[in-house]
Structure formats: C-alpha cells, structure tokens
C-alpha cells in the first residue's frame, strides 16, 4: 500500500514538474529574445532595423486583427449566457466601481506630482519649432456622435472600440432576454464557436510571441537612438512618467492588497500581457493576451474575464488620466493661464471622464488631449514639442492601463467568483 502511495506521489510530482519546466523554458525564451532585441537595436544596421520593423508591424497587425472581434464576441457571449437572473449586473457594477476608483486616484497622483515638481515652461522659440498641424475643435457632442454607429460594419473596419462595445452589448442583452428556443441557441452557438476559433488563434500567437517582443524592443532602441529629449521638457517628462510608475508600483498593488490579493503573484501571471502592452502601445491590441493570461495564469473565472476585460480596455485608462491632467495643466500654464487648486480639482474630473471615453489604441491619449484642449481654445502647438518624448510615455501608459485592467478583473473575480460558481452549480441541478 505504501509502495503504491509512493508511486502515486512520484507520478503526481512528475506531473507537477511539467508546468514548472514549461514556465522555465518560456521565461528563458523571453529573456533570450529580449537580449537579442537589445543587441539588434544597438547595432544600428539598416537591414536589421528594417527586418525588426517588419516583424513588429506584422505582430501589431495580428493583434489588431484579433482584438476587435474578440472584444465583440466576448461581450456578446458573456451577456447572453449570464442572462437576466445572473450576476451580470453585479459584475458590471464592481468593474465600474474599481475602474472609476483607480482612474480618479491616477489623476490625483498626477496632480500631486505636477504641483510637487512644477515643470517649467518651454521657451517660446522652442514652441515655434512645432510641426503639429492645427486640429479642428471638437465638442463632447461630437465625441458622443462618433460612438453611435450608422453602419454595423463600419466600427469593426475602423476599429472604433466604443462603437463595437455598444453594438456587442446591444446584441448580447437582446440574446439574454430572448425566449430560449432553437433559433436563439443557434445564434448563440455561432458566436461561441467563433470565439473558440479566435482563442485558438490567440494560443498560436502566444506561442510565437517572444519573436514579436524581440522586434518591438529592437525597434524601440533604434527609435530612442534617433530621438532627442529637450532639456526644457525634462521635468514634464519626469512628472508624467513618475506619476505612472507610482500608479503601477504603489497604488494598484495597494488596491489588490486591500482586497486580499497578492500583487506579485498577479503580476507574474499577467507578465505576457504587460510585456505586449509595453511594446505594442495598445491596450485594445493586447486584449487577447490579457484575457488568456487572466484565465490561464491567474485563474480568473472566464465569465468575469471575458466580460470585465473588454470593458476595461475601453473605460479603464489610469495612465491616460494622468497624462491628460498633467499635459492639459502644462499647456495651460505655457499659455499664460493661472493654475490654482480649483483649476486642478476641476481638471481631475475632466481627465477622469476623458480617459474613460478614450480608445485603447496607440497614441489615443495624445490625440484625445489635442482635441480636448482645442475645443477649449487652448493653444496646442506645444504638443508638437512633446511628441518626441511621447513614444516612451505611451509605452509606460499602456503598461499601466493593462496592469490596472488585470487588477480590476482579479478584484472582481475575488468578489464574485464564488457566487458565480454557486449559481452555475444551482443551474446544473
């Protein structure tokens, strides 16, 4: 008997070692590709730079190809399956609560950093070097109109995530309230089948992801070698990056700890998504990897992951909130507008609302800030001077956004996963 137990224990130990070996191989492969990316980027070889740019572009296109349909299918299938009597309302409420909480705190941290370091104005002659083209003023009504689709295909073709979410939510809710019959089940099964196909494509993409990371790093190093950060922007740059790093390494971990979650364990599980976010500069494009990492590595309930993460990709923009607030105050200060405590408090809320409405695409915060300030008749020529340093800012912002998305999904899972399992068990009986 003891001998049999020993054999069983050995077998279990052997099985337990397989995932560990797989993780070691995966981490080693990532490290090798990161080192290769650094080497290729520093070489400055034109042919290699072109190859790395090509590979990075291929991966960016693949992420974009999968991101929009996975957002729609995840939201449709989750809403449809949750139905009227399930926890869909609770999931949404918890997700929005954590999203608004973290986003407001991010804006507050940005305001504190701005007041503490007080970045100096850019010299007028430097602002004259700006090459940004004038932007037509747009109001919030115009922003709302861009969300409301007039063609069911156009939002998917244009990658308008907010419109896609609106269409998907409408279809998902309609399926949830429809009478359960063969036609309703056939439509839902079609969506579920398409979702399974996309998750298989994501699995294949993750298998070759280290190659993409290598190309992204090489491309970044080459770009940094060609760019110059203006000395007059050093403090502004420090304020933006510093506020994002505080949000990433202090604020979000504190939220997780307050919910009884281990930030290091979650960060380790979400590392593939964070790496892709950092180098791709697109939280929407990173969504497939974020969902896979949350479900497979952090064991987030699929119902929660596939409902919360697509929503968070659009409305949970911690990094963007800090950037909008700091940049807006900085441009207003350079335009001669007095920045006082009241102005800062008002802009905390403006930045939070604007960040919630921002799309998770590369440079989304940059263009949103230009539109926002132009609509308020604030000069935006300085955005052209900020542009050379924005590539690095955008990378850090996207990493913060995806890290916050991951935290929200894990916190909602902590709150509701047990209740969802009980509901599933009750439905099975």
From TrEMBL:
Q: By what name is this protein known?
A: Dicarboxylate/amino acid:cation symporter
Q: Which Pfam families does the entry link to?
A: SDF
Cite a GO CC annotation.
plasma membrane
For this protein, the record's InterPro entries field holds: Na-dicarboxylate_symporter, Na:dicarbo_symporter_sf
Decide whether keyword Glycoprotein is in the record. no
Q: What are the TM regions of this chain, as residue ranges?
A: 24-42, 62-83, 95-117, 156-177, 197-221, 233-257, 307-332, 339-360, 366-393
| Lineage of the organism | Bacteria, Pseudomonadati, Pseudomonadota, Gammaproteobacteria, Aeromonadales
The highest taxon in the source lineage is Bacteria
- Which species is this UniProt entry from? Candidatus Anaerobiospirillum pullicola
Q: Which UniProt key words apply to this protein?
A: Membrane, Transmembrane, Transmembrane helix, Transport
Report the sequence similarity comment from the record: Belongs to the dicarboxylate/amino acid:cation symporter (DAACS) (TC 2.A.23) family.
How does this protein lie in the membrane? Multi-pass membrane protein
Q: Subcellular localization, per the record?
A: Membrane
Where does it primarily localize? membrane
MF terms (GO), sorted A to Z:
L-cystine transmembrane transporter activity; symporter activity
- SUPFAM superfamilies registered for this protein in UniProt: Proton glutamate symport protein (SSF118215)
